Amino acid sequence: xxxxxxxxxxxxxxxxxxxxxxxxxxxxxxxxxxxxxxxxxxxxxxxxxxxxxxxxxxxxxxxxxxxxxxxxxxxxxxxxxxxxxxxxxxxxxxxxxxxxxxxxxxxxxxxxxxxxxxxxxxxxxxxxxxxxxxxxxxxxxxxxxxxxxxxxxxxxxxxxxxxxxxxxxxxxxxxxxxxxxxxxxxxxxxxxxxxxxxxxxxxxxxxxxxxxxxxxxxxxxxxxxxxxxxxxxxxxxxxxxxxxxxxxxxxxxxxxxxxxxxxxxxxxxxxxxxxxxxxxxxxxxxxxxxxxxxxxxxxxxxxxxxxxxxxxxxxxxxxxxxxxxxxxxxxxxxxxxxxxxxxxxxxxxxxxxxxxxxxxxxxxxxxxxxxxxxxxxxxxxxxxxxxxxxxxxxxxxxxxxxxxxxxxxxxxxxxxxxxxxxxxxxxxxxxxxxxxxxxxxxxxxxxxxxxxxxxxxxxxxxxxxxxxxxxxxxxxxxxxxxxxxxxxxxxxxxxxxxxxxxxxxxxxxxxxxx
Length: 514
Fold this sequence. Notes:
By secondary structure, this protein is of the alpha/beta class. It is built from 17 helices and 25 strands. The chain has an 8-stranded mixed β-sheet, sandwiched between helices. A 6-stranded mixed β-sheet has the order 6-5-3-4-7-8, with helices on both faces. Strands 15, 16, 17, 18, 19 and 20 form a 6-stranded antiparallel β-sheet that branches.
């Protein structure tokens, strides 16, 4: 059997040749046209010297050309390295050095960067973002025969806690992830899906579902224009959508302020960062007719669990942690004791004995067919994040949490950010959720050298210190906690998660203290 993931697109094209596959910036392509374009592009790649197992670095934002080129790479048996649009020189240098790429393709800005990054200059083959339309004569060439373990796509973690890890997504892994997403998202071929999460487009192409790529700059998610999102959703009668909490918060604020409605939007999937009840309430108010599903997952395992936003609203006890629903059926989930050490191989019996009982907080650990089992050329990351237990490889998420007696999963924050102060153990997720509920602002607490600092981001004007002191007391934090009102840095991919690494540096400089 040929496990090449591109065959799923060809099957979808055979079943729905005239159906629109991708829409972006007023342009569209149907499934038959996309399949022909992929085959002809693959032929052009082979003529340029790109073939089986060659690595090609992509620095192209979400667009029709991006997906045509990546699919063409897979058709050839080549491996695509996908770089986020916000990637800088250091990140590109790391990727190109790690993979020893044979080909490079990118937009104009990327070609300028190519001249500034030594490892990019060494890539021998420069490729256009798309090949000219006259190169479409080849329409029926077979895809390369690959097995399930053959690498297809290499993506990178944000690297907020260290050097970015290269996630090695094989053809078999992508097929398994597609089956999980297809089952869990429950979209039909009648749906029109606006997608801001790149991997979800591949799922739609394999399922025969139309994808709308929004008109926004992925390099600057903090500058997303909600009016453009609303325009695309209205113009194309979008029935489902996926994206980060920040994107949907901006869209919800826009719709509420303008009294605009999206009654045809029936499903929303939110992932990439935690969603507190305050945001869930805002989303439910703005999109009353939509099922709003909050997805918990990571680069290595997406999805892990989900919870309906309206169910989350009933779980208001922030001291318990953030409810994220029950693990999906395709995931096995365990809670293990906190440890900073690599565990090495364990027997299945040793692993099960080691795991914690319901109600006990530890590190969340998962396994399943759509859970990444390897990193690309990074044995240290593998040792730190994977636990082989017999034939099963468990992934350590780095998140703290616990399962209650009913099997519901609660997040307590990043395991590495927990701290002890005055003989009390603190986890960030309950603190952040409680502080946001009290102040209406994004806030967190960090410990350094025996002192606590409250970081809080006022929405409009500085908050009174007396008010913040009362909030500290209600949260159980001591009066001696320092207060720093400032802009809180977020992750570059979604502008949704707090970047604790960058925030910690402010404890050293003591900048912006008020």
